[in-house]
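Dock zinc ion; give full complex structure.
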Amino acid sequence: MIRVTIWNEFIHEQQEEAVRALYPDGIHGALASGLRTDDLRFECVTMDDPDQGLSEAVLNRTDVLVYWAHWGHARMEDVNVRRAAECVRNGMGLVVLHSGHYSKLFQTLCGTTCALEWRAVGEKERVWCVAPDHPIAEGVPQTFVVPHSEMYGEPFDIPEDAKPVFMSWFEGGNVFRSGITLKRGFGRIFYFEPGHEKYPIFYQPEVLRVIGNAVRWAAPRYRGVHTTPKVENLEPIRTE
Ligand code: ZN
């Protein structure tokens, strides 16, 4: 059983009628019910919860954190971001969705600005799987269409060890590394671009399949604290 915590800033759904109509239980609620299977157990938290949803207690019972955010990035307190980033380095999995690319958490773990080009006109997106042997691509078609999407385009300022599993083409001509993996410390990270709040993207079966696969791939194999202990020699040292 993988313990999944879905963290949603939960601002658009409360402030915009159209988004609330699309996601009446919040983006977190739609993801929790869309991803439900026997091997995953879900807990949903939002920025309004204690420690902005990233308390030690929550993180301690989380195997994989799924993260959606947009307007609230600047409101995240550094202490909460640091705590979550440390958990990733110590082995917790992280799945960052859509505009979460610009969150302090993702930026901290990437070490880059994570800036990109964007355009929100509802154009068509075609997603291509470029690593069909990757576990996150299992059961996902080689290509699928998101009928209406926000364009995120290259250049995408992510670190050079980011490995693409998906790439996207947008109707307006742009391309983007829309699904990438990273490893930080013992933690596995997946970023996936589809998920603009104004379209029913988190109800789309291919998108849910990718996110579900990513959660299973990011689940920790090992958890431990990175330290720098001074150690005694095991063998005698005769070097003068
Ligand atoms: Zn968006």
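Observed: The mean pLDDT is 97.
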